[in-house]
Amino acid sequence: MKVAQDLIPVMEEIIYGLAPDDFPTLSDFEILEGDNIRLLEAFFVQKPDISLLESRIADCLPSIDLTQAAINLSEIAEKDWVSESQKLLQPVDAGLFFIYGSHDAHKIPDDRINLLVEAGQAFGTGQHETTHGCLLAIGDLSAEYKEKNPPETALDLGCGSGLLALAMSRIWPITIVASDIDPIATETTILNAQANQIPVVPLKSGQAGIAALTSDGFDDTALGEAGPYDIIVANILAKPLQDMAKDIVNNLSLDGTLILSGLLGTQEDAVCAAYTKQGMTLVRRYPRGEWHSLLLRRSA
Fold first, then answer.
1. Which residue, 38, 109, 192, 276, is most buried by CB atoms nearer than 10 A?
2. Fold type of domain 83-298
């Protein structure tokens, strides 16, 4: 129904009162920019009593003309909404990598590293420009390491869904540490590793696969003890990247490589300054829209 914005709190109380044991989900939306009238929507598990709703509105807000407010009731068909949302995700072709959901399994190419990642609660399906930029950087590193000894350790810091850790594990048969402060992220990483037949291994085991660790960055000593790392990928945000610059560089091997992302192009100078202070130099940038991913190494 359409209602004045200042009356929405009262309307919410009235609607909640219709289902005291099963609160509906409420949302309101702008109809015309700058207009005070909003579209109020309520989603009920059970069919509400519209006549009771109208009666209570009339009692509490007699000034509302219900014929103009137009309360519309419609039934929403039951669906697997997770599956429906997954269908909206298109495959991601990021250089060396092809990221797809199970609904697109028939589209996987033969000349890419294919990774199955479903839509979920953790960030990282390859759709976002920051993840895409990191995948391109990892692909370039793969080519560079063919000319020298492969890395011995790698870290996906703030791993989200674990996609970047999965990508690295498909290139290098080493322990890839996937760390995040959110336990949902590390649980999702484990599930994604299993879905891609990538071993889940203990931290510091020396085995090839993914070692998932829930930790508050390097404040968790276990994360530092598993290093130093030849590659650290951190797709987080500009401010945490700046705040963590010293810890990140201190846990990087002397000839290691950093891939940083989660920053806007307008934030690049500030992020680079924090890492220049720690003896790092920008080698390459990967601009994707307004977002930048950066590859850095120690200054000569």
1. 192
2. Rossmann fold (3.40.50)
